[in-house]
Amino acid sequence: MSYISVKNLTKVYKMGEVTIKAIDNVSFDIDEGELTVVLGPSGAGKTTILNILGGMDSATSGSVVIDNNDIAKYNNKKLTDYRRYDIGFVFQFYNLIGNLTAIENVSLASQICKHPMDSGEALKRVGLLDRRDHFPAQLSGGEQQRVSIARAIAKNPKILLCDEPTGALDSKTGKKIIELLQDTCHKMKTTTIIITHNAVIADIADKVIKVKNGKIESVTINKKPKLVKEIDW
Amino acid sequence: MLIFKNSFRKIWKSKGRFLSLILIVILGTSFFAGVRETASDMIKTLDNYYDETNLYDFKIVSTMGLTDDDIKSLEAIKGIKEVEGSYSFDTLIDGNAIKVSALSDISNVTLVDGKMPKNNNECLGEEGYYNIGDTITIDDDTYLNNNTCKIVGTVQSSSYIYENKGISTVGDGKLDSLIYVVKDNFKLDYYTEIYLIADNTKEELSYSEEFDDIIDKVNKELQELKPLRETARYEEILEEAMDKIVDAENELNNVKSESEVKFNNALTELNSNKITLDEALEEYNSGLYSLNKTKESTETEINNGFNALDTAKNEFNKALLNSGLTIDTLQPTLDTINANIKEIETQLGYLDPSDSLYETLNARLNELKANKTNIETLISTNNTLIEQENTLNNSLATWNREYNNAINELNNAKEEIDSGYEELNKGYEEYNTNYNLYLSEIADYETEINEAREEINNIEKPVWYLLTREDLTGYTSFYESATKVDSIAAVFPIFFILIAFLMAFNTMNRMIEEERGEIGAFISLGISKKTICFSYLLYILLACILGLVIGLSIGYTLIPRILYTVYAASFTIPELSTYVNPYACLIIILTTFILMSLVVFITLIKDFKLAPATILRPEAPKVGKKILLEHIKPFWKKLSFSWKITLRNLFRYKKRIFMTVLGISGCTALLLTGFGIKDSLSDLLDIQFNDITHYDATLVLNDDVNLDDVNKSLTDNNLTNYINTNISSFTFKADNKNLDFTLIAFMNDDSVDDYVTLKSLDGSDLNLSDDGVIITEKMASLLDAEVGKNISIRNSDNELFVVKVSGICENYISNYLYMNSTYYEEIFEDNNYNSFLVNLDDSTDTEKLSNNLLDTDYFGAIQYTEDNMDMFNDIIAGMNNIVYLIIAFSSFLAITVLYNLTIININERKREIATLKVLGFRDREVSSYVYRETIILTIVGIIVGIFLGFSLNTFVLMIAETDEILFIKIIKPLSYVIAFIIIIIFSIIVQVITYFILKRIDMIDSLKSVE
Hints:
Chain A is of the alpha/beta class. Chain A is 28% helix and 28% strand. Among the domains of chain B are: 89-187; 653-693 and 863-1011, no CATH class; 720-839, Cathepsin D, subunit A, domain 1 (Beta Barrel), CATH 2.40.70. In chain B, helix 2 (15-52) runs antiparallel to helix 7. The mean pLDDT of chain B is 84.
């Protein structure tokens, strides 16, 4: 069985009398240490998949088995623990706490999990150790995203979930971030899922899951993922 | 327009914020409007009641009653609308002092139940005291035609609205209840009172300045009339009395002259009787005298006869004896001789004369013849003697008979005379007794007349007492109560509305800041700034309108009613009519609108100044900064990570610190002030009536009583602790107001301490001095007086006196001036001590004591400190209830403020919180991340609030203080604790609410772009 196994996942939102099926009977597998890109246009349902995978939303039906645990059956408390110990999250808008320095932002996450990486070490890995005492407002967008990644990896998560990690960045910086993520994934063997509408990024992934209209359009396995240097957008 | 639709949607989306805005407006306006309106509603309600019951503006009573002439002259006064004479008297019914009054048109009564009385057998009783069907009997029959009446209805009177109805002239000196009878039932030939209603007073609000102005004006007129009518009445009474005396004198003179004649006649008769008797007696005496004279001469004559007889007898007896014969032998001897003679003569005839024998015989015959003559002489002498003796005896017997007759006659006459005298003496005696009786009666009568005359000279001029409504205990007490509300209303709601406004400002400010992106979008879409402004105005004005509608409804109905209910407890008054003061209402509405609009403009203008593009971009996040504390490395290092974050967050948003601390400290201050007022009041009575004044009663002496008698009656009633004083009402002028105070001069200042403790403000003991007075703290501050300074005071006759202040003493209720006898007598040139201060045993039955003392006629009134305390207790209880309202509202405000602040805090940091949740923070951790700041700020707010509260309390008490009461400006430690706990409890409540709000924050928000 795969590390992550999504089966017949359906999410229905009820907006008054209208019901919207955000994702409809979705199934896919992701292996441990794999870098997966979930690709699709806005409104395709990829954010819903991310929300469910990230333990931020619950499924209407279907199962989401992660490391032999079906998180679709989790209650709120278990989901919190799941997020706390198993998930590293990288936001599109970094979501750093403005009032905390870089290293404090990292520590904020690491202090609550069981086997955290040293915050300094995490920052070192993203190459920002020298800016550890800077506040987010004193950092550029790319740097902030790095801190965000450091915060995610400091938890030693089972899954690194990245929501449009380059969405708010220019292409050059974006590439560097993707590079960092690919790097991290390979070096740390962390299962990494990047959600994006940017098809270019898909080239660097081990697996590409294309979503369209709430359904899986295709699941492609890149036998030879490209290096970030090789892609261009 | 869609932008407005957007506004409405926003309302729905931010229900919490919108609701808290409404709540803030409700709290602010309802409290402000309500507390400010209460006093005016109360007064208006009472004014209506007074108008409905036609309550008098003036009441005139006189020491000698009032007449129709008085009424006529009152009617003639300009400015008087209605005049009515009426009757009343105080009497004891079943030991209770009851005022029995005639039903009148002015100051009529409100029928609560039953019907109005129609005849002398029916009457009305006070509601709550009498029941329909009760029968009352009045013992004193000087006033009424019919003294037994049945109660056919129960009433309330606007003259007696307070539970303390004032003083009574009977019983224990306290009026217990009221009875009303029909006017015709009174049989007095004079009115006991006259009621007046002045022109235009009904149109003016009672207690208002306009009202008082009219009263003052009419009062002046009445004051002018007063001496005239007093004199007129005096003369009338004098004339009446004089007439009576003259009549009495005339009658006396008539009686006198008639009686004199009668007595004279009687005496004349007696005297003439006496003369007759005297003459008779004289006659008798002369009769007796001549009788005795006759008796003497007659008896001498007879005795002489007898003596002569005796001599003759002796001579005879001698002759007899010489003749050797006895009386018995005389006749036989003679017979023998005669026989012998015859024989001889016969012989001789025979014999010749010459015969010797003849001769012898002749000689013998001669001899015999001589014997015979001798014997015959003897016999005849004897016969003469016997005859003489018989004659004598006869005349003696005759005399004696005559004499006896005469003497008997005389004796009878004497007897008659004697009984005549006896009768005469009796007559005289009777005459004298009657005459003396008559004289003494006349004398008595004359004395009486003289006394009456004297009394007329002593008749005091009748005194008119011009009473106004101010002299009604209820009328003034009610105003006191109402103004107490007002004095608190003057300051409290301002602070209240200030905090409310601040919170609204904060809320709107945050909202606009949060929606900066949206505003930018609107501007860039070409929507005019006016329209944008309007869309926010719409939002806030909607909140204001809803808040105002609810707030003003509560403020103008519920709050006055709550406060009124509290006051109504000690008053018998109609239900409150609530009024909406259109001006105040308009001001509140306008102020709210203007302030809230200002909030919108001020915040928006900041944004509008920027170029649309800049507004579109999110406001550059605040650069995180190391805080000062971090530089204290050892301290900072020891802090846990979460505390570091908390502290850093705390200092990041200065505005939030400011708002939170201000909001919470404001509420704490309000709460604390509420408690502070309560604390200040709670000990007030205790300190005043236990620690400062100790006497339990004041006995007011009647004029001209003998102090020894009084002392005896006090001892008789087991009163041992008392002190003779002069207690008089005086006034002093401060801030253009004439304020009352009580002057107490001690006749003997040895034991003053037992009755009043005079302590200076620094706690040291004060003693009365011979050259100065001790005045109370409040009076000193009103007069701006210091020790050594002179102050001016006026007595009730408005005479001015200047006294030196020798001390200022601690005192909280009423104003007093204390002095010793030396200084008192020096200043006032008077040594009349009209009252006693008395300490009673705990077991004293005050009612009995009052009855006993008032029965002696030495005492005019008895006042118990307890009753006085009760009155202040009522006022204080009323204030306490306002305090509860303040506390309740402050609590509401506190909870709203806390909620509002937390909501804003959460709204501001929704994204941050969502991020934390995504990072796997548990709900508890997320909450504590937010709470920790709130708790710190709350505690800081409370601490600041405690200082603020202390000042606010002092300030509010200073304003709320009246000229009569000095507040003890303290807040008890317990109150600090309670205020602290209340705020903490509220913040816990709010945090429980926040917990659920936080829980509901959607993590997906964290994925959204920064707005």
